[in-house]
Amino acid sequence: xxxxxxxTTRDVSFWFLFGDELLLVPLVLLPSxxxxxxxxxxxxxxxxxxxxxLNICLxxxxxxxxxxxxxxxxxxxxxxxxxxxxxPSSLTPNLDRLAAEGLRFTDFYCTSxxxxxxxxxxxTGRYQTRSGIYPGVLYPGSIGGLPLNETTIxxxxxxxxxxxxxxxxxxxxxxxxxxxxxxxQGFDHFLGIPYSHDMGPCWNLTCFPPDVKCFGTCDLGTVTxxxxxxxxxxxxxxxxxxxxxAYSDFATNFITTSANKKQPFFLYYPSHHTHYPQYxxxxxxxxSLRGPYGDALxxxxxxxxxxxxxxxxxxxxxxxxxFFTSDNGPELMRMSRGGNSGCLxxxxxxxxxxxMREPAIAYWPGTIKPGVTHELASTLDILPTIAGLAxxxxxxxxxxxxxxxEILVNQGKSKRETMIFYPTDPSEMYGLFALRLGKYxxxxxxxxxxxxxxxxxxxxxxxxxxKPHDPPLIFDLEADPSENYPLTLxxxxxxxxLLEKIKNVKNQFEASMVxxxxxxxxxxxxxLAPCCNPQCSPKPSCCHC
Length: 545
Fold this sequence. Notes:
By secondary structure, the chain is of the alpha/beta class. It folds into 2 domains: 68-417, Alkaline Phosphatase, subunit A (3-Layer(aba) Sandwich), CATH 3.40.720; 434-515, Arylsulfatase, C-terminal domain (2-Layer Sandwich), CATH 3.30.1120.10. 25% of the residues lie in helices and 20% in strands. It contains 11 helices and 20 strands. The strands form 4 sheets. Strands 4, 5, 6, 7, 10, 11, 12, 13, 14, 15 and 16 form an 11-stranded mixed sheet that branches. A hairpin with a 2-residue loop joins strand 2 (11-18) and strand 3. Helix 6 runs parallel beside helix 7 (291-313). The longest helix has 24 residues, at 40-63. The chain is globular, with a radius of gyration of 24 Å.
């Protein structure tokens, strides 16, 4: 049971979970002070109604099981990479099933065009500038990480008795003695790599059977990639060919154990797929139509299928919200091995649509009806939505996310009117690069990126240097999602008025933004890189187990 209080009355709406249905029921508990209800008898009757409603609420609260949450987070997946988003040769039957039977978003955004900042915003509901996860990304020897005083989704749910687990790519810091690992941020269990899987020797090799080249003799000054279970290195270097199988087994066991205990759970699966260099085990290698990228995507999709089967087998699928999206756009510099942004402009590393608009799907049988929504939403909104559905308290900090329940349950309107676009290296000097208000997007600065080079569009290349725009470039994203045709402001009073409104929103937002201390600017210390044999010598070559 979840409540919503209206500001000027004592009218209350309740979210009731009746069996498999989540319903919004408007109820009047007591008259407001300025109401016309004056007779004592009528007030007594309303008082009795209030007691009756309270009893219903208590009954529903006791009878209904708290919902479970599975959060799937792909890596460097483009807007056009899934079959359900128009790719002609991707094999993603399980993700396509989620899209067909769930709610597919067309206007869903991450907060950064690179990994670490995007993940920080997802888990905290706050722009990365507040938590200090900027500029760029964290590395194996990074001194900083996601500050421990930031509140993650897992920490929001823990007071309600939720079991919590993270598997896959953490990339929010390792630090001194693993101080920034998931187990320090609200997760009971962790199996994964503490940073990006390409941050190890021979990141440019391939890792697909039968031609297995996962490691080599280059970059010997770097520790090999470790697989960690909770705070212990289980394997170094990780066996990439068996990694997805390990993740799938760990996740399905976690779901099964939680369901058997009748304990609500939160499973966070930030996958390494489809970040370059891709890899895949025997179950997917060579079995897609898209080469290495498609094989990696297929392997991820297979794990999604295993999770769905486990939810069905344990009988909790109708009490579980499954949400899927990606951390940022495709790394187009890798060409066919970098992903596809569909009709959107540029990709990873840029504040164009291809860098930050993501595929997103919400799936909850019996609660979320199949369909497509064009409402504006963001990874920022996942924390407040989960908190609202679980009945959890929100962190007592400045949140940038809004509750999406109305979109999910009723395919209603979004509470979000704006989306902010920060570059990979945000600063108070430049502020935001772009802002979306409704269907319009204004670029105050544009810049290409190495990650999006090699495309025919010169705006995407690293050679497209920082360029200010005054007045800003304004695009109608409904008519021109590719951002090809900036609107002409001259002689159009309506667009002039729009520009003034955009500027006001920009000024208000930037006045509210307090930049946290940059965690990434604290630098790196090679001695902090994870080693399974910390006393060994010489490092890093001795870090094998």
